[in-house]
Amino acid sequence: MSGHSKWATTKRKKAVIDSKRGKVFTKLIKEITVAAREGGGDPVGNPRLRLVIDNAKAVNMPADNIERAIKKAMGELEGQTYLEITYEGYAPSGIALIVEVVTDNKNRAVAEIRHLFSKHGGSLGEHGSVAWMFDKKGIITIPKLDKTEDQLMEIILEAGADDLQTEEDYFEVQTSVESFETVRKALIENNITPENASLQWVAKNTITVKGEDAEKVIGLIEILEDNDDVQNVYSNADIQD
User: Fold this and answer.
1) Which of 166, 172, 174, 223 has its CA 20 to 30 A from that of 4?
2) Is 69 found in the same domain as 25?
3) pLDDT tens-digit series, residues 68-103
4) For the chain, what is the domain count?
């Protein structure tokens, strides 16, 4: 089992708070729209759409919102066209960042992302400049409810998961991209409802940052995450303090 930075747990708690405020709804609606446009509006035949709908339901998004986003994607209702873009760059202390964006205006998005990097001590890099430092992994978080670590481990390993991290009030399951959906289904079949399940960029190696350096890195990550076009920000920072 691998360790976890305190910042990872803090980000999870922040995401839970944001979801209660409705802030996460906008990001999920964009994800639903993109998934439906690319793979069709039927979640039965569109695994990506099925996944994001499950995540939307997990944060109590109204069914009407989900249905409306799908209809917009399929052209049944008027709506915006979104582009998916991934930006790479560096935060202070040489920390690598991957920023996933879904936007209706590419020129606006790149200008804003570049400005935020520059203003907060970072630099926007070229495509491929930091992606080699990361692997794409499936990450599934599960609240600690009625399953012990041993019970959960048995289920996920049989389904093909790679790792299990135990935190203060939740478990985090890590999978390959290929086994992600199999593991997620196995959990649901065993009456375990994931808090969140998604494909994420996970750093192959991390860099420890503390004190003022850590504050600068967190500051840039948070200001990027607050941008309306930004869906996710990933780093190779190990922030313990």
Assistant:
1) 223
2) yes
3) 999 999 989 887 889 999 999 999 999 999 999 999
4) 3
